[in-house]
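Budget justification note: compute hours in this period were largely spent on complex prediction jobs such as the one shown. Inputs:
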Amino acid sequence: MEFLDPVLLARIQFAFTIAFHIVFPGLSIGLAAYLAVLEALWLKTNKKIYLTAFKYWLKIFSIIFGMGVVSGVVMSYQIGTNWSVFSDKTGPILGPLMGYEVLSAFFLEAGFLGVMLFGMDKVGKKLHFFATLMVSIGTLMSAFWILSVNSWMQTPTGYAYNEVGQFIAEDWFEVVFNPSFPYRLAHMVTAAFLSSAFLVGGVAAWHLLKERKEKGKNEVARLMFSMAMWMAAIVAPIQLFIGDLHGLNTLEHQPAKVAAMEGNYQTQKGAPLILFGIPNDEEERVDYAIEIPKMASFILTHDMDGELVGLDQFAKEERPNTKWVFYSFRLMVAIGMGMIAIGMFSLFLRWRKKLYDNRFLLKTAVWFAPSGVVATIAGWIVTEVGRQPYTVYGLLRTYDSHSPLDAPAVAASLAIFVVVYILVFGAGIVYTLRLMKVRPGDRGELSEEESKVPSSVTLSNRLPHESSDVKNNEEDKS
Amino acid sequence: MMIDYALIWAGLIAFAVLAYIILDGFDLGIGIMFPFIKKKEDKETAMNTIAPIWDGNETWLVLGGGGLFAVFPLAYAIILPALYMPIILMLLGLIFRGVAFEFHWRARKSQHLWDKGFAIGSLVAALCQGIALGALVQGITVENRAYAGGWWDWLTPFSITTGIALVVGYVLLGSTWLNMKTTGSLQKQSRGIAKIAGVATFGFIGLISLWMIFIEQQYLHRWFDAPNIYYLFVVPVLVFIVGVSLFITLKRKRDVSPFLLSISLFLLSYIGLAISLFPNLVPPSVSIWDAAAPDSSLKFLLVGSAFLLPIILAYTTYAYWVFRGKVKEGEAYH
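Corresponding output:
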């Protein structure tokens, strides 16, 4: 019975497709900005090292961006196929916001992407940089509108109802800049930058480790690693601060979500901070909890004895799924703390002039390469599962949002999506990893040599296969 | 003065959908004819003619869907569940088609699989778009602001026919595009395909036009009642003139004209369709005004669109301009 619930199936389908999707635009935002910075540095200093790094990441970016586009097109239609009542009711508010995303961001990225990828020989350096900049701005504007949409679903303001029960806008400014929007946007864009920084840092660290014995000084990998570690050192602590503000905002507007994040079943003064434990919904307590007394109250109310609302203040059918929110939140915070630690350690080593030689840092950085992506997905689960049982928080229930669909149709499409996504994006990830295995510098230098010959006949045929010829060990020895 | 925002938006959405059909039409068409291109180098050249622009082309589909959600949310909420299967299959097709541009260059042993994915994905996407169009034209059952039909309502002989027709039409666009953008053996082969696709497209336009007036009385009256018949006959006459010109220019081995004439053929068919359907957005019962979002939404988005659409058209044109001219073998960033 539960299995054949079309709403549950539609939720799984949405969660699955968006969990895949969120990874790619997240990395695109960070990598596009990184590419723009590298190209700007190249234009300013005329040093080849920046161009080499640019070309290295451009290829990876192109694959990630492509996967973001195709998975994004799916998202733009899935709202209508599986959530038609939601579409009808919220369309007058959310539709224009998404319309603005397409008009101001999607076209901009797509329009200039071709010039960015293929146009270096055709438009010259400055116009090419302009194209890169436009792609980067496009990804940021996209984040602006999509997070406005998402935030409105979490903290709806500026709306009224019309006679057929649709939400309509009373004040567009309040709709777009709804109460949780600034925090959510800042948190997400920062997460995107950190995800990309740790990806870049991880890849660079892998190459530095691999070449340690050869005593080779791979300047390109060093540049990448250094930039990534600056990012970690400066931005990861800022993210902690933004996340804290976001948490306070959520406490104000969605206390049930915060109660689930904290595993706080009973309303209490001086609530402890539960580091870890197993939420037990039946007994309404966290089993095997390891906790710091009064800390949760202190963090959230800035008062050791501040009162925190618990899940007991909400009827059972008004509560989100505690386990998902509780575990995901801990995973996200743990990764964030790890990022800060890496950033601080890198500062210390930089000061000691040993940034590129510390095996422990390099190894940790390799392990942390996908950490930003994992943290982003975890954070997204916290915020979206925490919004349940509503699609528009407090106003429109998930069970009143879905399409008039039969379970077999949703089940069939879900099954196809799972198979196709794993196949296509699995292959995409393999190809991305393959590009990352290429030694930075090798191919970048080569393609710069070649790019001096306009429209070289051999270029397209040789280079993709060249990657397989590069001598490197199949496995990371570390 | 009352401004009819719903009507303005109907025009803009219609423009977005038309832009999509023409732009993604030719790159999907190239995907469909991909298996028939013999030489490996020609295949890669064909792919390279569209690699820098397909992404922008597909964005018009997102604008069509997103725009429908924004300004005609009721139509969006009815059409998407009604056409559930063809739309899901179209999206899956577009996934394979889209990643093929990158994966083709990155794959080693599996390259031929991604090329097949490119071809089959394009075919499925085109077929499903045509089926969806046919299913819309034949009418969608609506009760209480929601789709009230069955699971397989979209699957009829008529919708299958429109599906095949669109596939053939896209091949015409794709082959005339390649005829314009390439040289040598690929150009020669494209011209040959264009001739066959041209005849077939022409035949399908006639067949579907006739079929439509038997499906729904409204379409019959729209075209044949006086006084409409006196000025609407211009459309079929123009279709005939354009069709003949297409053959003449192909025969004379012109580069650009066949592509422009193919676009004109699509444009005329589209106008014909619009004449038949107006003022319904979801035939037979939901009109543009029934489906429109409140004026506050229409106005809010229109302000930005008036400013952004010209800019989009400008840089889209620029992107095409950068990659103008014939594409030589092996020309790519990879």
